[in-house]
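Lab notebook: predicted structure, single chain.

Context: the supervisor wants predicted structures on file for every construct in the current expression panel, including those that have not yet been purified. This is the next one on the list. No modifications to the sequence; it matches the entry in the shared construct table.
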Amino acid sequence: MKYNRILLKLSGEALMGEKQYGIDPVRLEDYADEIKSIVEKNVQVAIVIGGGNIFRGLQGTTEGMDRVQGDYMGMLATVINSMALQAALEKIGVKTALLSSFQIGPVTELMSRRRAIEYLEQGKVVIISGGTGNPYFTTDSASVLRCVEIKADVFLKGTRVDGVYTADPEKDPEARKYKNISFEGAYEKQLKIMDLTAFTMCRENNLPIIVFNMNIKGNLKKVVTGDNIGTLVSN
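Prediction complete. Output recorded below exactly as produced.
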C-alpha cells in the first residue's frame, strides 16, 4: 500500500445517490463496501462527511436565518450522516469509532487527537463529525484540520467527478483534466478544489490532496495502492 493512514472526505450530497435529499441506503452500502476493502488491507482510515444533503448553514442565511445558528445546524447534520455510515460499516463487520467536535450523550465521543490515533492503531475506522465545532468553517476546513491532527499520509477528496479540471466538466465539454498540479498552480488558475482556508492548510502542512471519483467501484482501493487515477495536488 502506498498510504498507510488516510483521511477520506465525503460530501453530504454524495450520500443522496439518486435521491433529491437525505440518504440513499444503496449509496451508503456501496461506500461501506469500498471502505471495508481498504480496511482489510490494514490501511488506517479516518472519515469526515459533510451535511449538505440535510442542511447547509449558508443555505439558511439566504433564507434569513442567523449564520451562526445555521452553521451549528449544519454541524449536527454531519453527525447524522456519520451515524448512518457507522451503522452501514458495522453491519458488514467493520469496527468503528464515532467522534465529534462536541459530545452528544451516548452517540459520540469527544474528538481528541490522541483518542483518534489510538482507535486508528486498533484498526477501527474513525468517523469524525461535527465540523470544527465552530461556525464560519466548512467541512473541508474541518476535514483538513483532522487530517493534519492525526498525521495522515494523504487527504482523499471523494467526489462524483474523476479529478480536477480546467473548468466544470459537467458544464463544459471541453474541460481538460489535470493528472498532477501544484498548490501554486491551482492558486494561479483559481481552481475551486476546496475552500481557501482548507487549501492553504494543506499547502502549509505539505499535505497532498487526491481528488477522485468515489462512485466508481474499486477506485478507493486503487488510490490507496498508488494507481494513477484522479488528480494529485501537492507542493
